[in-house]
Structures are given as C-alpha cells and as structure tokens.
Amino acid sequence: MDRSSSAVAETQLMSGTPAWSRLSAASFWRGVTQEIAVRSRDPHLIGYSLVNQAQVRTDLGDGYGVIDLCQAALDEGDRLFPKVRVMAMQQQAHGASLTGDRTAVDHLIDAAGGLLHRVDDDLPWGNACRRTPGYLEVQRATCYGRLGLGREAASLWSQVLDAVPGTARRDRGVYLARHATAAAGAREPDQALEIARVAAEIAVETRSVRMARELAVLGRAMRPWQDAPVGRDLAEILAPVTEGYDVVGVPKPLTDEEITAALASLPGWERQGDEIARTYEIRHHAAVAAIVTIADRSRRVQHHADLDLRIDSLTARITTHDAGYVLTRADVDLAHRIDAIVAAHQALPLD
Fold first, then answer.
1. Alpha-carbon gap, residue 15 to 53, rounded angstroms
2. How many of the other CB atoms lie within 10 Å of CB of 89?
3. Which backbone phi and psi does 104 adopt, to 5 degrees?
4. Which H/E stretch holds residue 69?
5. Residue 126 pairs with which residues in a beta bridge?
6. How far, in Å, are 47, 93, 246, 268 from residue 147 at the CA level?
7. Which of 345, 314, 332 is CA-nearest to residue 22?
C-alpha cells in the first residue's frame, strides 16, 4: 500500500468509530464528516475530510502525516473543486514547514494562489480567511514562523494583518501573537513587545486558550531578553493572559479551593473527580444544533468537551486532556461558553 492509499485507509478506519462512544464534540463531528464522505464516494467530500484530518495532524506536529493526507486528496487532480484543492495545498504547505522544506512551502502556496480566481462560490473559508490573497499569505507567514524565518515572517504579518476583518477579533489576536513571535525571531524585541500589547488585550477580552498558548510561545521566544527591561515589560503584559499556563502553554491544574470558587460561578455544574459536568434538559433537535456550535467554538479555542446526547438531554463533561486529565482554567472558560451556547439553542422552534 502506498502512502496516499494508507492515508485514505486510515480515514476509512477512523470513520468506523461508533457514534454512541463518548467522544469530544470535534472528534465526533469529524468522524461523521469522514464517514459521510467515504460512503458518498464524492471526491470533493473525501478531499475535504482528508484536509480536515490533516489539520489535526498539523496540531500534533506530524508533518509527514499532513503531507500524505493532503496528497491523497490532491491525487484527484482536476476532479476536485478548486476550493478543496486550495485548502489541500495550503495545508500540505503546513506539513512541509513541519519537515523544514521551505521550497515546498512556497511552491504549494504559490500553486494554490494560482487557483483562487477559479473559486466561484461565496461559501466562507472559515476563521478570518476569505477568498483573497490574504488567505494564503496568512498560511505562508505561519509556515515561515514555524521554519524559523523570523524576519520574513514578520514582514509578511505586517502586510496581511491589515486585511483581517475587524469582526475576526480572536483570529486577529492569534495572528498578532504570531507576528510578535516572528519579530522576536528577527531579533526585534522592542517591536515584539509593542505587538504583544495589543494581542494581550484581545486575549484578556476573549479568554481564548488558543491565544494564551500562542503568547506562551512568544514568551519562550523572548527568553534571551528576559532580564532586560523589555523582557520584564513583556512578563508584566503577559501575566494576566498566561497565568495558569506552563512554559509550553499547557494550562496548570487548579487547586481544590480554586475549583470550588470557579464552580460557584457555574450554576448546574458539579465536580466529578477530575472532570466538571452538567446535564441540560433540551429538546433533541436543539441539542444537535448546539453540539455543532460547541464543536466549532471548541475548535477555535483548541479545547474540547465530551458530550453525551440523549433524546431529551445533553451532558457535557470537561477536563484538560493535554495537562494530564486535570481541571484547569481552560475547563472553566469552556463551561461558560457551553452554558451560553446551550441557552441560545434552548429557544429554537420545533420547525
């Protein structure tokens, strides 16, 4: 079996996960997408599901896995909608950046750019990305930062940030944090500090776990100046954001006292060992819609709940898996988000 066939086979195997298993919302809906795609035999849906799985592999740092999955999609060639091909190419560029291949990054981003004029629908790209060259330059800048090309990445971020919509505040904060890290890599600590001021304000406002992790990366990049005035200023700026996170951006465990205090602000939630949980009485159709929204928000903040859907209820359980299955500030933040989402969906009409 070649590498592309292996990637398709893996997708088919993963799609066999039973829906009744207690999975995170994102994993559940990703599995549903993959199963529908494979059963449909539709190359566009299969390509999209492969790219979706490649995004997960990017987060895991598995560059070769990303490349294989995207190549499996791109093997369909012109049969794919241009948008799916663009998505596969830019994600494959992320895989190339993880393997240190700058030439492949530029080739893939440029090739994807050549297809943008053929995308003839108005469906959103997701996040702050739209059908503009800025969509791909965000990807290139991120890849350059991962490759350690600080000066080039910083220059690109200066250009693309102007194109990010004002409504995409959380994404803008993430990009600013990456810009600051690139400036640090370019040996421009003062510039990194000024950019970080704005990113930190957005992080405090949005309570984004994803942004806190990006700013933790910035903190590591600024270590050469930690004893200088600029380093001390940065530590002060980041303190409200990164408090509760370790040096690699993983949330620190809360104490029993902190957990008790947090639950006081979360009516209906209770502690169950190393999880917090709540059961909502909600109609089935509204709960399904709520799960989709929870999955989307969870993807954006990079923290997920385990969801148990029944005919007239929805139970959410949260713990921080990447901190060793303990309760952290990220769990409290996600619980507040889920409360708001379920409250909004409980009012849905029956038809």
1. 11
2. 24
3. -65, -35
4. helix 63-74
5. 129
6. 26, 11, 23, 46
7. 314
For residue 232 the two structure tokens come to 């001390």
Q: Is 327 helix (H, G, I), strand (E, B) or coil?
A: coil
Whole-angstrom distance, CA of residue 303 vs CA of residue 296: 11
Q: Which residues pair with 245 in a beta bridge?
A: 251
Please give the Cα distance from 99 to 26 (Å, whole number): 26
Distances (CA, A) of 17 to 4, 70, 270: 21, 22, 29
- Give the C-alpha separation, 317 to 334, whole Å: 10
| Other Cβ atoms within 10 Å of 22 Cβ, number | 10
Under the phi-then-psi rule, with left for phi > 0, alpha for psi from -120 to 50, and beta for the rest, what region is 270?
A: beta
* ∠ CA 102-104-107, rounded to 5°: 110
Instruction: Kindly give, in sequence order, each residue whose CB lies less than 8 Å from that of residue 349, ignoring residues fewer than 6 positions away.
Output: none
Q: What is d(CA 177, CA 214) in angstroms, rounded to the nearest whole number?
A: 6
Token output for 210: 């994803």
Query: What single-letter DSSP state applies at residue 351?
Result: -
In whole angstroms, give the CA distance from residue 236 to residue 276.
31
Rounded to whole angstroms, the Cα distance separating 106 from 112 reads 10
Phi and psi at residue 309, to the nearest 5° = -95, 125
CB 128 within 8 A of CB 175: yes
As a whole number of Å, the CA-based R_g of the chain is 21
* Per-residue buried b or exposed e for 205-228, using 16+ beta carbons within 10 Å of the residue's own CB: ebbbbbbbbbbbbbbebbeebeee
With 0-12 CB in 10 A as exposed, 13-18 as middle and 19+ as buried, what is 244?
A: middle
Q: How many CB atoms lie within 10 A of CB 176?
A: 26
In angstroms, how far apart are the furthest CA atoms of the chain?
62
pTM of the model: 0.66
Walking along the chain (351 residues) 10 residues at a time, the average pLDDT comes out as 37 35 47 63 79 84 93 85 90 96 96 85 50 76 94 92 78 91 95 95 82 86 94 91 63 86 93 93 88 80 84 91 79 91 72 41
Partnered with residue 278 across adjacent β-strands are 316
Residue 307 and residue 318: Cα distance in Å, rounded?
9
